[in-house]
Amino acid sequence: MYSLLNMCSIDATDDRTALARIRDAAVVRFGEVGFSETTVRDIAAAAGVSAGLVLHHFGSKAGLREACDDYVVAEFARSRIEAVESGEIDPFAAMASVQAEQHLMRYFLQSLRESSPAASRLFAASFEETLRLMELSVEQGVIRPSDNLHDVTAVLLAWQFGGMLLQEHVARVMGVGTDVAEMMPRYARASLEVLTHGVFADTRYEDAWREFAASGAPPPTEEDPA
Amino acid sequence: MYSLLNMCSIDATDDRTALARIRDAAVVRFGEVGFSETTVRDIAAAAGVSAGLVLHHFGSKAGLREACDDYVVAEFARSRIEAVESGEIDPFAAMASVQAEQHLMRYFLQSLRESSPAASRLFAASFEETLRLMELSVEQGVIRPSDNLHDVTAVLLAWQFGGMLLQEHVARVMGVGTDVAEMMPRYARASLEVLTHGVFADTRYEDAWREFAASGAPPPTEEDPA
DNA sequence: ACCTCGGCTGAACAGGTGTATAGTCTACTG
DNA sequence: CAGTAGACTATACACCTGTTCAGCCGAGGT
Questions:
Q1: Residue A111 at interface with chain B, using a CB cutoff of 8 Å
Q2: Mean pLDDT lowest among A49-63, A88-102, B159-173
Q3: What stretches in chain B show pLDDT beneath 70?
């Protein structure tokens, strides 16, 4: 019904609908520089259409964002479903496949920066899936059992995405470039070390906290002495 | 200490100079909603002056940002020096004192979101100090020795700040409010558990990675299976 | 007294923003 | 073939942005 020829200037071989081109361009721009730094005219130019058409299809810039949110959420869900159907269990491979679609991940990370509604949806969805993965890994003896697996998973997820958000700063203090190939070996080794052995030499801090929590007093300190 | 945000009508007892009021208001606004979402007129109104005066004192909005950056960096440094001079060693207390000046921390976190130049400076400074603290803690037997303490510190710092950045999302999946009093017990318990015992049941992932790194092949996966 | 200088203001300017509107063209339908 | 619907464009509009500018005012020096 709405299949039109696309005459426009972007690429003669681009057979995507103008609407799809707008949406894709918006996902890229929003992911790269953020929502408020992106102009409707930018997106229109990148999609090879006029600014008016963007509003014609999506109503407003906010409507375009919502459409992008829905699209990215759906794409993530689709890629996860594919991964599950292919019988993927290995958590390493799981993360690798998430990393695969870079522009989606960029959009997600940018959403986290801006605390957009999509970020909450994606974080929550990622949490549910990770929690299932953690439970499975505990059964398989890969992950140490915990009577607090729910919160532990939430913290680990925050650390993981938080680490991605601060990638640039980690790379700088490590003295390497921000590209994955250069940074990942260092980051992976350090994080694996912490996630395997912890950082504290004994349980004194954990004990101190447990004792404190049991006393019912308002806790006096921040989270961890990293 | 000194009065915080007094929006339109400045308190008659406010003896700060107009320049200081502008700078303080800018730090608050930049920290709350970010640089590009804050207008010069907003800041001027919050400081009780005209928009022209802001530019008169700081040249431009960018100049104001630089001044705020310098101010916040200096304030952080000052508070850290005070902490060191008071003989503070306990990492818990260290983090608590950092948390104390909330508007400075908010400014820093917002800078991290926006990857502003100040964020790099503050992250690097925080890293240097944390690294010294870690070395000291290793000597005291509190932190487990590591032949990779530099990178481990970088990762832990990224996780800590990253966790703060994603505070809202962690709270949501934990089912608690975002305020510190409600969230911190849960967050502290989970992070202490991980930092004390790790999450992996054995060293298989660490071994696999070491083996892989030794082979010299390009690594195939992402950082951790959180 | 006069003068000067810097803090300070109000209005104006130039550019960019999201958005509304009028109109063109093409494809489909009766 | 008329006619309608919708994709699409160009233009204009209203608003907001950072910034500029001419000038006011009070304090301090001579």
A1: no
A2: A88-102
A3: 1-15, 87-100, 216-226
What span, in angstroms and rounded, lies between the C-alpha atoms of B99 and A133? Answer: 34
SS3 (DSSP) at A101: coil
pLDDT of residue A74: 94
Which of chain A's residues have a Cβ under 8 Å away from the Cβ of B185?
A: 213, 219
Question: What is the C-alpha to C-alpha distance for residues A223 and A215, in angstroms, rounded to an integer?
Answer: 18
Interchain CB contact of A100 with B (< 8 Å): no
User: How far apart, in whole angstroms, are the C-alpha atoms of residue A217 and residue B158?
Assistant: 29
Question: Residue A129 is encoded by which pair of tokens?
Answer: 């899936």
Name the nearest CA neighbour of B21 among B34, B31, B11.
Answer: B11
Query: How far apart, in whole angstroms, are the C-alpha atoms of residue A38 and residue B142?
Result: 48
Is the CB of residue A97 less than 8 Å away from at least one CB of chain B?
Answer: no
Q: Is B201 exposed, middle or buried (0-12, 13-18, 19+ CB in 10 A)?
A: middle
Classify B87 in phi/psi space as left (phi over 0), alpha (psi -120 to 50) or beta: left
What does the buried/exposed string (b/e) look like for A97-110 if buried means 16 or more CB atoms within 10 Å of the residue's CB?
bbbeeeebbbbbbb
The answer to whether B71 and B23 have CB atoms below 8 angstroms apart is: yes
Q: What is the pLDDT of residue A6?
A: 34
Nearest to A37 by CA among A97, A101, A110: A110
Taking only the tens place, the pLDDT of each residue in B191-217 is: 999 999 999 999 999 999 888 888 765
Which pLDDT does position B4 carry in this prediction? 28
> How far apart are alpha carbons A38 and A20 in whole angstroms?
18
Positions 29-48 of B with beta carbon below 7 A from strand D are 38-41
Identify the structural domains of chain A with CATH numbers, from first to last: 18-176 (1.10.357.10)
Interface test with A, best of B131, B149, B173 (most A CBs within 10 A): B173
